[in-house]
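Recall from the previous chapter that SMILES is a line notation for molecules. Here it describes magnesium ion.
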Amino acid sequence: MEWETVIGLEIHTQLATKSKIFSGASTAYGAEPNTQACAVDLGLPGVLPVLNEEAVHKAVIFGMAIEAEIAPYSVFARKNYFYPDLPKGYQISQMELPIVGNGHLDIEVDGIMKRIGITRAHLEEDAGKSLHEDFHGLTGIDLNRAGTPLLEIVSEPDMRSAKEAVAYMKKLHELVRYLDICDGNMQEGSFRCDANVSVRPKGQKKYGTRAEIKNINSFKFVEKAINHEIERQIELIENGGRVIQETRLYDSVKDETRSMRSKEEANDYRYFPDPDLLPVLISEDYKTVVKAQLPELPQAKKHRFKDQYALDEENAAILTYSCQMADYFERVLKESGCEAKLCVNWITGELSAALNKAGLEIMDSPVGSERLAGLLARIRDNTISGKIAKQVFEEMWQSTATADEIIAAKGLKQITDTGAIEAIIDKIIADNPGQVEQYRSGKDKVFAFFVGQVMKEMQGKANPAEVNKMLKVKLNQ
Amino acid sequence: MSLTADDVNKIAHLARLGIDKHDIESYAKDLSGMLDLMTRMGELNTDDVEPMAHPMDQVQRLRPDVVTEQNNRKKFQAIAPQVEAGLYLVPKVIE
Amino acid sequence: MHTKTLIELAQGLRSGEFSSVELTQIFLNRIKQHQHLNAYITVTEEAALQNAKAADVRLANGKAELLTGIPIAQKDIFCTLDVKTTCGSKMLDNFTAPYNATIVEKFNQAGAVMLGKLNMDEFAMGSSNETSYYGVVKNPWNTHTVPGGSSGGSAAAVAARLAVCATGTDTGGSIRQPAALCGITGLKPTYGRVSRYGMIAYASSLDQGGPMTHSAEDAAILLQTMAGFDEKDSTSVDCPVPDYRAGLNNSLAGLKIGLPKEFFGNGLSSNMAATLETAINEYRKLGAEIKEISMPNLKLAIPAYYVIAPAECSANLSRFDGVRYGYRCENPVDLTDLYTRSRGEGFGKEVKRRILMGTYALSAGYYDAYYIKAQKIRRLISEDFKNALAKVDVIMGPVTPTTAFGIGEKIGNPIEMYLSDIYTIAINLAGVPAMSIPAGFVAGMPVGLQIIGNYFAEDSLLNIAYQYQQVTDWHQHTPKGFE
Ligand SMILES: [Mg+2]
Ligand SMILES: [Zn+2]
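With both inputs in hand, we obtain:
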C-alpha cells in the first residue's frame, strides 16, 4: 500500500515586546525564577488584565505579511484547564474570533513552489515552566514566562512530507524575523512547533486520524519527529492497529514520540469570552498605517536582488535569508562602490565561512559592513590583490583595524612601479635559462612558473595583471 | 433536565473540586433544580439575537508596551504555601 | 455621636468639636460591644487609631477632604495591603494581599479611617450572608433574621452604627438587597463606573462596587471617591465623574417614573406593595409623573443570571488551587489530589454549587443551550431597559419580595433563595445603575424602594433619593439597642 502523509503545523511565536501581553512585567529571558512574574501573571485575586498595544500591532503586521484577513473585531476567550504552570486555571487566548484570519505562505521544495494555507493566527498568553529537577520529589514552578505574548500560527493540513513541513517552518521563521516581531530564538523557546500528523492511503480523500506531536523545537527535530511519527502510524495500521487521536511528546534524546497521558484526560476547555477583556477593534485606518510601515518581504526582496544585481537563484536566496544579511550586502555594495559580483563572492565566501566557523550570525559579525566595504574598495582600486585581501580580512577578523590601517602597517600595498617589477623579471629570466628555453620552444605551461617566481620574489605585492603583461613582453623578446 | 451522581462526579473532576461522597446526591438534586429553572429560557425565541458578553458596547483599551512592574518575588512568595529557591513547589508533574 | 450623618461628622471634625481619634474610638468600642452581630471579619484597631491620628493632623493643616477622619469599613472582598482579605472563605483565611484595591487606595488618599473588613457571603455568593465561612451576620432590626447578602456585614454594620458608612459589591443585588433588609441606602453604580481592580471577582461582567450609607447625600460623598476611570481595569469606563452633591437639590417636577407591571405582580406581598405605593405617592407629591410600563423579558433574568454568573465564577475561581496562595490541603499525594482537596476543603457548599453549575453550562455540548442562550436573553433584557428608559426617566419597584427572612429559613433550599433576587438581578445583566432607599416598615422590618436609572445617571438617582429623604425620615430610623 502506498501512503500519503498529511501535516499541519501550529507554531507558537513569542512576540518581541518589552512587557507582557496583559501586564507591565518584563519579558526578558533568563531572569531568576519568578522575579518577572507580577500580581497579574501570578493570577492573584482581584487583579485584572490590560492588553499590550504592541502585541496587537505585531499580530497585525504578521497578518498583513501573509495577506490574511485582519479581523475588524476580535475577542479574547478563556481556555480552562488546570496545570501548575497556568496560574489562573485558564489561558487567555482567542477562539472564535482570532485577530488574523485566512492567509498563506509560499514554500519551495526541490525547486517546486507550493502555497501553504494559514488558517488563522491568534494572540494568547504563554504559560510558565515546570522544572523537574528534584526538589524532594516535587516539581518547581517558574512563572517568569507566564503572560509573554504569543502569536499562535495555525496552518492548513497542506504539507505532504516532513521536508515540506521543515520548509514551511523555516520560511515562517525567516518571515517573523524579517518583520521583527519575534527574535526567532529557538533554544529559548521563542519559536515553537507542534505538528499534527496523519497518514492515509494514497488517493483517499478523507484524512486519517491525526496525532499531535508537541515540543519539537528545532528544524532538525521537526523533520525527525515527523518522519518517526509517519513510520509509527504506517506500521501501526499495517499491523492491523488504529491510530488514536492523542498528544505525543517528541523525545529528542531517544529520538521517538511517546503518548502524553497527562494532557489527554478531560480535554474539555470550556472556552468562553473573557469578561475581563473587551473586543479588540482594528480600523481600516490602522491597517493602512501598518501596511505602509511593512518592510520589504523576503520573496519580494529576493526577486529584486535577482533583477537589480543580476544574481543567480542560489546567491539571491543566501543574501535574502535574513533581513540583516540583505541589509549587510546592500550596505557593503553601496559603501565600497564595487560591482555586485565581488561583494556577493566575499559575503557568501570568505565572510560566511568565517561566521560559520565561529558560530556567529551576520549581525554579530566582528567585521561590520563598513570595514568589509573598506577592504573591497582596495581590491577595486588595485591597491591589493584578492589574495592579499584574504590575508587582510583575517587580520580584520582578529582586530578592529580598518583595511587601510592593516595594509599600511604590514606594507601590503601592491607594487605598481613598473621599473621595480622589470628589474625582478630580468633577474628571474637571467637565473632560469632552462625554463626560458622551454617556454620559447613552445611549452606555454612554463609561463605560470615565471609568474609564481616573480610574485614570490615580490611577496605577493605586485599587481598580477602588470606582471603578466610585462613577463609576456620580456619572454617573447 | 436532571443530573445523575455520575454527571456531578464528571463535572466536579473538570472543576477539580473535591466533593464529599455523601453530598453528591444533594448536589445532583440542586443542580437539577437549577437546570429546571433554566429550561424556561427556551420559552423565548432568540434566533436573531446577538449574544451579549458585556453590558455596554465598549471596546478594549490598549496599554503602551512599557515595563512598569518590579521584582516583588519576596512579597508574593511570603503568602505561598510552599516555595524553594524562588520556585513554587507542587507534587511531581508527570508529562 | 454615632447616629450623626457623614456631613455632620465632617463638620464636627472641622470645627474641632471632636477629633478623628475620639470618633474612631467610639466606633471601635461599638464594634466590640455589638460583636454578636458578627458584622466584621477583621477589625484593624491599631491601624485605625494611627490613621485617625494622621487624619487629625491633616484636618489641623486644613488639607482635609470630606472623608478625612471618617471611620468607614470595607467589604472583605476588597484587597487591602497588609490586612487579611478573606472574601468570606476558608480558602483565603490566611490570605493577605500584597496590594490595595483601587478603591481602597482612593479612600486612603482621601484620609478615610478604615475600621476593618466586613463579613459577607463566601465569594459574594449568597443572599443572606449565611454562606460565609465566618458565620452568619445578624440583622440589627431582628437578630433572628438575616441581613441579606452578599454585602450583609456592610448593611448590618451601617444599620447598627458600627461604621459611618461602608462599601459593598453588587453582582445580582448584593448591595441593594441587604441595604433594603437593613434599612439603609445602597447604590450599585453603572457597570464600569467603579474600578474592579483588587476587588475579588465573582462574575466579572456583572460585579460592581458601590456605597452603603445612611443617606443619599452620604452615598454621593462615597461614590465621589469610589468612581472614576482606572487604567488597571479594562472594563473601567473613561467618562468624567460629575459632582454628585451638586444636583441633589434639583426639583423633581415633571420627573417621569416608570413602574414595570412585572415588578408588582404575584410575588410581592400586599404589605410590601402598600408600603411602596405610599413611597411612590410621595414622589407624586414632589411633582413626578407615574407611568405603568412593561418589561416583558425580566421574567427570564433569574435563569439567565444563574447561567452567566456561575459560568464566569467557575473560571474566576480556578486560580484558587493551593499553589501560590490561599488554602492548601495537607499532604497531597499528587497534583490532582492537591487541586481537588484544596478546592474541595477550601470552598463552601454554595460556591461549589455555582462552580459546578458554571462548569456544566460551559462544557462541551451544553455551551450553546445554556451559555449562549443566556447571553442572548441578557441582550433582550438590556433592550427592555433601553426601551423603558427612553420613555421614562427612572424605573421604580421593590428591591425584595419580602422583608428580612429568618436565619436558616431558606439556606436549605437554594432555588428559593435564588428567586428572592428577582427584582435586582436584571439590573446587573443590563449594567444600569440602581439604588435601594429605606421606604418604610412592614411589621417593624425595613422595606427598600428601588430606583433604577440610565447608564451613568447616578447623579439623577442620588437627586431622586435625596429629595425623598428630605420629605421622609425612614433613613433616620435606628434599630432598637443601637441608638
Ligand atoms: Mg494549539
Ligand atoms: Zn496556543
